[in-house]
Amino acid sequence: MKTFKASRLKFFPLVALSFVLLGCPEVDSPVGGPGSPPRPAPPAQVAAQQLSVDVAAIEENLQGLRRGMRNQEQRIEEAREAIQGVTDEVERARKDSEKSLEEAGEVIAKLTERVEKLENEVSQLRSKPPLVAAQEKEKVEVVVTPVGAPSRMSPVGAPPLNARIPSAGLPQSRDAQDVGAPASDTRVAVIPKEPASRPQKPAPAPRPPDPEEDYTQAIRVLRDERNFVRARGLLNGFISKYPTHELADDAQYWIGQSYYQEKNFERAILAFNKVQVDYANGDKAPEALLLEALSFLSIDDRASARELLGQVIAKYPDSGAAATARQRLESL
After folding, report:
1. Options 3.40.640.10, 1.20.272.10, 1.25.40.10, 3.30.420.10; CATH of 211-331
2. Helix or strand or coil: residue 282?
3. Measured between alpha carbons, how far is 297 from 305 in angstroms, rounded to an integer?
4. Domains of the chain, residue spans
5. Among 63, 183, 211, 290, which is disulfide-ready with 321 (CB 3.0 to 4.6 Å)?
6. Measuring CA to CA, which residue among 314, 246, 244 is closest to residue 286?
7. Other CB atoms closer than 10 Å to residue 283's CB: what's the count?
8. Burial status of residue 145 (CB atoms within 10 A of its CB: 0-12, 13-18, 19 or more)
9. What pLDDT, on the 0 to 100 scale, is given for residue 245?
10. Cβ count within 10 A of residue 3
């Protein structure tokens, strides 16, 4: 017994040491046996895994956003190109329409001028008395031809024309009876004699054009008919025909006025500026410069408007346009 106890005492430390080195299985596994679920991972490991999943999801979302932004940028660029194309097309159409209107105005002005010339010629012809042709009495010629001879008035083979020309209400003399008795021996033909023609007088020369009449007609079309396109054509035609006439600056001024009435202020500026360039000493120059300034003001270009209003006051200080320019400057 002593020996067994001694050996058991020696073996116990070895068993305890093995438990220490190998670990106790009951400690590693939860109570419940081999079928129980594994022990959960530490919180740090779970947080790291969740963070990795979140980062992956965020990266995927960012990639989707980048793709969406690229698509939006592409659509915006396509829309911008389409808008630019439409804008260019509208601008080309506007320029073409303006050019067509100007050409049509010139053509209408030329046609109007030709019609007026023809009307003047017709009026002159109607005002003169008609030529009275001389009415001559018809004369006849009596031709006596022997029987059987062909007459100048009847075809060959026609029966002879037995006729006599009696004197109405007068007895015939014997000689006349002798001449006309053998009715079968003579024929009488009547030949009308053509009236003598009279030479006609040559047509009068057309009246030379009157510049003031052309100008008055253009102003009438502008003011009364308010046909601005036709009026511009007539005024441009007037300037082309009479560039040095004293009314040429007035014609250019009214061209600017026609654009101003249409609220086409850009073209009005160009037309009024042409008055300053070509007719700086004309009587319409102050008013043209004032309206040029007001046209700039109508398109919200206040700096240019102020400058031109100052020029009106400096160049034409005693004019009515200068007084209006001072009032406008005070209100700006």
Report:
1. 1.25.40.10
2. coil
3. 5
4. 49-100, 211-331
5. 290
6. 314
7. 12
8. middle
9. 94
10. 7
